[in-house]
């Protein structure tokens, strides 16, 4: 018998207290506030499916992309690689050449793997969840140490490229998108936070967490004591812990969306 979706989510996150509305002050008893909002900080294209998944659990999703992505072009004369390496789905558009669809594509994360397959790549191998996992997979899968195309965002991937070169790979590191942090919270997110309507905020990367915290006003930062932060990994949680006022910081049991949503529970 197929298990219920709720049971699957419950198993994906360590047991935590169920999110509930905080008690209201006496002068607010006649003006109830629904604390069922969930702010989602990731950029498109992952934003839309996450919004839908959060809504499907009964929460009110609030879009607040804190990283703005600018696509960059890959040089037309880039040599055909022996394998393509992706740490983010943001790179897929730039490297999506039909003549390369048979090139093995090694990626981090199941969502990125699915997007690569939809784009037309026929040999997609997915690492568990981090760039270190991906590097270990490459070392095991490619003993011949061929030519790799490491397609990353500007400012990303230098350490990975150096580590792979030290292992004997010929690495072409190419920046195929640029990331710019948002300077302030989007209006809907700011209004919901100010009104006490936000129960939780989802953070999928360290840079997103850093951008969110940097964008807060002092007043907004002071409101985080009533909000649960949900982090995809311990590294993301460490970035969030620089603000001590969170109601709670929860770390997903695995670096994927199902485990993130499990940390939300039910409204």
From TrEMBL:
Coiled-coil residue windows: none
Domain Tetrapyrrole biosynthesis uroporphyrinogen III synthase residues, every copy: 53-261
Gene3D superfamilies, per database record: 3.40.50.10090
Matching InterPro entries: 4pyrrol_syn_uPrphyn_synt_sf, 4pyrrol_synth_uPrphyn_synth
SUPFAM superfamilies: HemD-like
The protein's name: Uroporphyrinogen-III synthase
